[in-house]
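stuck on whats below:

***
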Amino acid sequence: MESHLQSEMKPHLDLACVKIEEMSDKLNDTEVKLRGTQEKLETRIFIWKIGNFREILRKAIAKKIVSKESPPFYTDRTESYGYKLKVKMYPYGTGSGMDTHLSVFIVVMKGEYDSILPWPFKKKVKVTLIDQQEDPFERENVTRSLNPANHSKRLDRPTTEQNVGSGFSRFLSHEDLYSRRYIVDDTLFLQVEVCPLYN
């Protein structure tokens, strides 16, 4: 018996090591799946439908309006908790040579839950102009990502009704805006996706 234990110790240990490695791989796979599920649960998507765009642009060119704002929304999926945000679009740019572009900004607003949220706002924000091609495979959406590290002061807890917006002065040129089906039936769609910074 003792001789058997001595001679078979290495094969038994090797077998145990293989089993441990298999369990470790399964655990890693489970962690990856769990993290993916968590990211989906923490991701908030808001779609802003902007109708009558030609008239909005005409008024902006005539300086009758400067910007157009979305309804406010909360970053939590249930829409009853989280950071309060809105989208601010400048159809004729933000001035100083930007009148050739559509400008888009995310604005952090004073919300009901600010006192229990961590500040500054540190989530990643993706803004997408949706290409309305009928075939989804032919769509060429335009997406820009907002890195919170570059806009820290603007993402602090608001002390007034809202902060200055963070975003993209040159989101898309007017030339490119009309080059595809970004505007259909005088309507465009801006999608805002709020997700964890590690996504």
The first strand starts at residue 44 and ends at 50. The helical segments are 2-42, 53-61, 174-177.
